[in-house]
UniProtKB/TrEMBL annotation:
One of its GO terms (molecular function) is UDP-N-acetylglucosamine 1-carboxyvinyltransferase activity. The gene is murA. It is an enzyme of class 2 (transferase). The keyword Cell cycle applies. Phosphoenolpyruvate binds at K22, N23. Keywords: Cell cycle, Cell division, Cell shape, Cell wall biogenesis/degradation, Cytoplasm, Peptidoglycan synthesis, Pyruvate, Transferase. It comes from Sporosarcina ureilytica. It catalyses: phosphoenolpyruvate + UDP-N-acetyl-alpha-D-glucosamine = UDP-N-acetyl-3-O-(1-carboxyvinyl)-alpha-D-glucosamine + phosphate. Residues 7-406 form the Enolpyruvate transferase domain. Its main location: cytoplasm. The lineage of its organism: Bacteria, Bacillati, Bacillota, Bacilli, Bacillales. UDP-N-acetyl-alpha-D-glucosamine binds at R92, R121, P122, I123, D124, Q125, D305, I327. This is UDP-N-acetylglucosamine 1-carboxyvinyltransferase.
Length: 426
């Protein structure tokens, strides 16, 4: 079993570079299925979600190369083969194969997606959108069957501003006949990124990044070259780490506007944050951090994906802080784990209540999901002693070269293989 081992207390210093956005990458790769000629995406993060999608595309006939963050996908020989099991269950974003395969072939069979367990993760709004476009959608034996004679543009109002549903409907609608309008669309930067790729492939999309997206279907899409946006969640994770235990950290390859909600909260806590064109500098960890309350919201609100690492920073603040996650009701599994590390924190319904400052102590802990894993890495960096983090496969779904990057700014973190015997003895 692979684990991360972290010796806490080392102050972070230097420049750390952010990779391409995971939550864009996992939609851009399926989007390439809609083209008739090769699509190249530059700057992809080297994470397991990207590798899983590569092999899913290869399974259905795609010719894919991936080197130095650049993926070229030749979708011309892709066929609509059913994908009910296997790799599709490894990630949440495999649901984008539904929109892309439906858009190109008018039929698809895709297993229900996996991803982090954060409480219910329904896809009813995706299905409502596909049905509005003319697809018949059924759930049979754990897979979604989508079939359409033809797809026709429609007006779709989303009951919740879902990132996944907005992107999936765009994917299905770009080759549909006529005009599609998505109302109450989500506005996340990743949606703009996917719309930019699709537009460069020849799609006609207006309004991505606002709550009304208008799509005029086209006959065919062609290949293109696209550079992915930086990962605002990875950038935010490093900003939080720098605020907790930094001594001059520059986070490079960030769009500062994308992390505005976090920057505002950090400043409210007493952290100095300097924003430049494509980087953010945290000159030093604040001497005294103030407690703050945080509510996660759809973009541009405070992102649910940063709430978990942020909860660890709050253990260092003086006073009681309350986090409310309005997006995912059960996204607090890190709280039990940091409790083992001497944090004073508890969960009440949709909120986590954290009182600080606490001197964290090293322990053996479990990365229950991706961002809980990032939270535990931060807890390990702060703790006295050597922390062991298990189930790191969750972390590696979403953070590219994390060990190398953190070592580059002075962290004492390494990956080790431990035997089951050692696990049992502990
Ligand atoms: C709004 C929001 O913060 N979205 C985040 C969410 O996206 P993700 O794509 O997972 O979630 P959505 O944006 O699609 O969903 C937002 C909310 O709508 C609900 N919902 C969604 C689809 C649906 O068909 N029915 C439905 O009820 C979800 O349960 C959730 O409460 O997690 C991703 C990975 O952690 C983040 O990158 C996204 O920024
Ligand atoms: C929860 C996340 O990923 P996924 O939706 O892929 O499980 C995340 O990116 O924080």
């Amino acid at each position: 079993m692979e684990v991360y081992k972290i010796k806490g207390g080392k102050r972070l210093q230097g420049t750390i570079k952010v990779s391409g956005a995971k939550n864009s990458a996992v939609a851009l790769i399926p989007a390439s299925i809609l083209a008739s000629t090769p699509v190249t995406i530059e700057g992809l993060p080297e994470i397991s979600d990207v590798l899983t999608l590569q092999s899913l595309l290869e399974d259905v006939g795609g010719a894919v190369t991936f080197e130095n963050g650049e993926m070229t996908i030749d979708p011309s020989n892709i066929v609509s083969m059913p994908m009910p099991n296997g790799n599709v269950k490894k990630l949440r974003a495999s649901y984008y194969l539904m929109g892309a395969m439906l858009g190109r072939f008018k039929n698809a069979v895709i297993g229900l997606p996996g991803g982090c367990h954060l409480g219910p993760r329904p896809i009813d709004q995706h299905i409502k959108g596909f049905e509005a476009l003319g697809a018949k959608v059924t759930n049979e034996h754990g897979a979604i069957y989508l079939r359409a004679e033809e797809l026709r543009g429609a007006k779709i109002y989303l009951d919740v501003a879902s990132v996944g549903a907005t992107i999936n409907i765009m994917l299905a609608a770009v080759l549909a006949k006529g005009k599609t309008t998505i109302e109450n669309a989500a506005k996340e930067p990743e949606i703009i990124d996917v719309a930019t790729l699709l537009s460069n492939m020849g799609a006609n999309i207006k309004g991505a990044g606002t709550n009304v997206i208008r799509i005029e279907g086209v006959e065919e899409l062609h290949g293109t070259r696209h550079t992915i946006i930086p990962d605002r969640i990875e950038a935010g994770t490093f900003m939080i780490m720098a605020a907790a235990i930094g001594d001059g950290v520059t986070i490079d390859n960030v769009i500062p506007f994308h992390v505005e909600a976090l920057t505002a909260k950090l400043r409210e806590m007493g952290v100095e944050v300097i924003e430049e064109d494509e980087r953010v500098i945290i000159p030093k960890a604040a001497e005294a951090l103030h407690s703050v309350d945080v509510k996660t919201l759809v973009y541009p609100g405070f992102p649910t994906d940063l709430q978990q690492p942020f909860s660890v920073l709050l253990t260092q603040a003086t006073g009681t802080s309350v986090i409310t996650d309005t997006i995912y009701s059960a996204r607090f599994k890190q709280i039990d784990e940091i409790g083992r590390m001497n944090a004073t924190a508890r969960v009440e319904g949709r909120t986590a209540i954290i009182t600080g400052p606490s001197e964290l102590q090293a322990a053996s802990v479990r990365a229950t999901d991706l961002r809980a894993g990032a939270a535990l890495v931060l807890a390990g960096l702060l703790a006295d002693g050597e922390t062991e983090i298990r189930e790191i496969q969750h972390i590696e779904r979403g953070y590219s070269s994390l060990i190398k990057k953190l070592r580059g700014i002075g962290a004492d973190i390494r990956k080790e293989i431990i035997t089951e015997e050692a696990t049992v003895r502990e």
